[in-house]
Amino acid sequence: MCKNIAFDIYNNRSIVRNIAITLGLILFLASFHTVGVKDYKIQKIVIDPGHGGKDPGTSGSYSREKEIALDISLELKRIINENIPGVEVLLTRESDVYPTLYDRPKIANESGADLFISVHANWISNPKIYGTETYVMGVQNSGRNFEVAKRENSVILLEDNYEERYDFDPNSPESYILFSLTQTAFQDRSLMLAGMIENQFKNRAGRKSRGVKQSSLYVLWSTAMPSVLVEVGYLSNPKEERELNDKLNQVYIASGIFRAFRDYKEEIESNY
Asked: In angstroms, rounded to a whole number, what is the distance separating the alpha carbons of residues 17 and 22?
């Protein structure tokens, strides 16, 4: 099986080319951020409100993920702008539009961002489950983690000619083997930020933290900087759906992510 997969990958030159370009960019930027740089500052962050436009994401009994993600992302941008004016904050979308899964990390890469945070809401068939989860890129694609990866990556199928752009089937376990080849350069910093976010949710924002997890998420795999995907709660849980639609709770959640970002920024910059 593995030999067949390796043979297919070898013969698909576009996959090989994309992997080489991505891996080279990651290793270059990793060395830039970690070797011989004095007075390094985190100056630009890209916030990615998940889904949007024709892609509603998950749905609760009366609300949709794309709206929750945008509301919290806009709050997060506002809070960062008001408290850390030296940081430029970009959003992959600021309204109900549909950036492709390809374009979201591309915006971060081309802008030279120092950090990428994607904001989402979760869903599961068991309405009793609730809480936050923060994902980093990884290959632990088993059980629930794989289900999250397939759901988030499946938006690829909404795009025209997705086969030509991605060379990737979001429902195929074999496709996820490719994801093990990149993002390792930023794993430690991504894990640091993810841990800080979940700590803020648990100890300051009054949320139930379900911890830091790893999965093969395309939007994280393609970024050339530390990156996390934050699931702010479950729309399948009636109580949590109400909380996620409450404006004050949205501020609390955005504030938790902000404090984690602030602490992360101070920790990283103090090492230079």
From this structure: 9
Label residue 238 by pLDDT band (50, 70, 90): very high
CA-to-CA distance for 222 and 80, rounded, in angstroms? 25
pTM, entire model: 0.77
Rounded-to-integer distance, Cα 206 and Cα 252, Å: 8
Q: How far is CA 227 from the centre of its chain?
A: 6
- List, for residues 9-35, the tens digit of each pLDDT value: 334 544 544 554 454 455 445 544 444
Please give the DSSP secondary-structure letter assigned to residue 101: T
Tell the CATH superfamily of the 2-34+43-270 domain. Answer: Zn-dependent exopeptidases (3.40.630.40)
Q: Write down the domain spans for the chain.
A: 2-34+43-270
Buried b vs exposed e over 171-205: b needs ≥16 C-beta within 10 Å? eeeebbbbbeebbebbeebbbbbbbbbbbbbbeeb
Whether the CA torsion 270, 138, 109, 51 is positive or negative: it is negative
Q: Given this model, what pLDDT does residue 186 score?
A: 84
Sheet holding 132-137, edge to edge: 88-91, 44-49, 115-122, 227-234, 132-137, 209-215
